[in-house]
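## tool: complex_structure
## caller: assistant
## args:
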Amino acid sequence: DTAVSQTPKYLVTQMGNDKSIKCEQNLGHDTMYWYKQDSKKFLKIMFSYNNKELIINETVPNRFSPKSPDKAHLNLHINSLELGDSAVYFCASSHTQKNEQFFGPGTRLTVL
Amino acid sequence: AQSVTQPDIHITVSEGASLELRCNYSYGATPYLFWYVQSPGQGLQLLLKYFSGDTLVQGIKGFEAEFKRSQSSFNLRKPSVHWSDAAEYFCAVGSGGGADGLTFGKGTHLIIQP
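## result:
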């Protein structure tokens, strides 16, 4: 019955590797987001997608590439991982008409 | 540019005491305001939201918040805290729709003393 799910929950990897985080929502929402929470717990929007179309792309390095195969999924692929990418990444979803966002459990990425 | 300020980084409250967490926002249009709670190692759970109408909104877990436009504030309150309320609390502002991201405050860490 999970509303917004993310996999994996934990991801430990070496610098320079490429990794992906998957997100799925079963709420019937048409908008999905990726947020980054840094070590000081500050949350910042990275991307938003509406009906599989990219809407927001904040000042995020182009090593980060979101992909939305359908309205229920928004994946995040990261190339050439750097130490500074270590953070917790949250996926969220909402209806376009109502910006009440529901968050997934987060993926803790650690880059060694 | 929009912003959210949570002036208290940490707050310590005795169990059973009342709680107020402060939030001030800056937003160019009609603000839509949210409070989220994050327990250790968990995701964010929506406590309550203000879109329009009554400026005193009720949320889950016995929380309420009051929107004061003149003070650009949306403070969170609870009359009697429980040990399980210990968590990180985030205030956020956004638009009423579209695919806009939320702008979050830096959070307030709530500690409950027995």
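## assistant note: The mean pLDDT of chain A is 92. Chain A has no helices and eleven strands. Handing back to user.
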